[in-house]
Design a protein that fits this description.
By secondary structure, the chain is mainly alpha-helical. It is built from ten helices and no strands. α1 (6-22) packs antiparallel against α3. The protein binds adenosine-5'-diphosphate (ADP) and magnesium ion.
Length: 214
Amino acid sequence: MNYLSTQFIISAANAIQQTILANENTLESLDREIGDGDHYINMKRGAAVIVEMQTELTPLTPDAALHKIGTKLLSTIGGASGPLLASFFMSMAKISKDIGDDSHLKIAAAFASGVEAIRQRGKADIGEKTMLDVLIPVSQQFTLLAAQNCEVKLICATLINTAEQGMLATKSLIATKGRAAGLGERAIGHIDPGAKSCQLMVETVCKLILDKNN
Ligand code: ADP
Ligand code: MG
């Protein structure tokens, strides 16, 4: 199956929306602890507008669908996470234009390009207590496993684990980017909300792929 088909992207958006809604308390309280409490609302709104776009997205090629998702998120999600997640999809759209098959290596490259766009836009890196503490390790692991020609089930199971570890690692970090940067050591002991939502999204998409492979 092609994981970069428009149909798969739409299924993933639906699954992500369910996950976000199911994690309202977690996401809201994490951002209340070290941010301004709006992260759940931002993610909920972002997921809803993408799901509402289903009929508009269906006839599009995957790259055009990803681009449309990116531009929509840019104008919909407020806060720091909006433009960051938007740049992920817009960059992934650019590189996935050439992807005609479901080669894991090509999908890993498109994912890496999206993560790199977040890194550049946010001027942040790993270890700064942001969503990148999940996305960078996941991207690196994905590229590695794809290069080793691993089977899809192993890739998904590993990435779920990598995302979880990255998310948990933010707990002991001081934030040097984003709103929590002003808190200094008071941020220690709290998981970064953006890292949590990215971990949940990685897990959701990987589980969707695992389900389709059973
Ligand atoms: P805001 O911080 O504007 O209220 P959100 O609450 O929606 O926006 O998102 C906060 C999340 O955005 C943080 O938990 C962090 O993961 C992520 N974030 C903030 N700034 C950056 C940055 N410069 N680079 C990467 N991620 C960032
Ligand atoms: Mg916030």
